[in-house]
Amino acid sequence: MNRYYGMQEMYEAKQDGSEEWNMPKERDPFYEPPDSPVFIASSVVFLQSLAYLIDVEEQFPIVDLSGQEIGLLTVGLSPCSTTGKELRGEYVENPNQLVGKNIAFKVKVISAVGLPRRILKSNCKYRFFGSKKMTTTPTVSGNTPSYGHEETFQFKPVTKEVADYLANSNLYITFWGTQRPRGSASRKNSVSTIGSGSGGVRDGPNRTKRVEKMVQHAKSADNRNISVKALETVLKGVDDNENRKTRKQSMKKAGSTTTKSRSGSKKPKAAK
């Protein structure tokens, strides 16, 4: 809501002709720092196993805003006592059997795999039944983060609402993080390739002039096509004179070799 009022203030200042509409970055409602966390995706975790006191550890799809699956999230769910000891083999046939008992439930956000390489850092957020604040995992770098998160939620006692929540609802886990701008690596590589190394356009101060001269010559000759081979020759740093000289030397050498082989050969003797 703060951004909404900031936009409204900026609009009114602009309408009034005031220079105050051009706000600094710290007050600009449209400015977003590049390193600020943004919503990336979400995952839906089924809680029905907890309603029957069954512990599970499964992988759940991570889905982005466009509905595409971008990875898998490993989550563990365990029923436990109020002291934190996990309950093993104490199953119930009906979730209503939990009502009136003191039970805790442990949520483990373990790790994620298959995330896009553009993700630099990420964490997960979720809200379990009765929680006033969002529970947040540690922020981890990389596209295969290991969160290692555990949180225990106690109910003394379990109410009918809690039992219904476990039996009929899901845990909605959201992914937040910072991302590498798309295409930045490829643009950087292309610039470095052009600007440095052998064969780069900037290798040799006269290449740009030679290309311009080639274009002017084509225009004066009313020719709209320039040979690709000619451009490659200029960009590789070898001009036409050097090419001609190399070709002449090769032809001369080949010709002298042929003449020598002919003069050195003997005519076969006629058979008697």
UniProtKB/TrEMBL annotation:
Residues 252-262 have a biased composition (Low complexity). Coiled coil: none annotated. Residues 180-207, 235-272 are annotated as: Disordered. Residues 263-272 have a biased composition (Basic residues). InterPro entries: C2_domain_sf, Kinesin-like_KIF1-typ. Residues 1-40 form the Kinesin-like KIF1-type domain. It comes from the Eukaryota. Pfam families: KIF1B. This is KIF1B domain-containing protein. It comes from Caenorhabditis tropicalis.
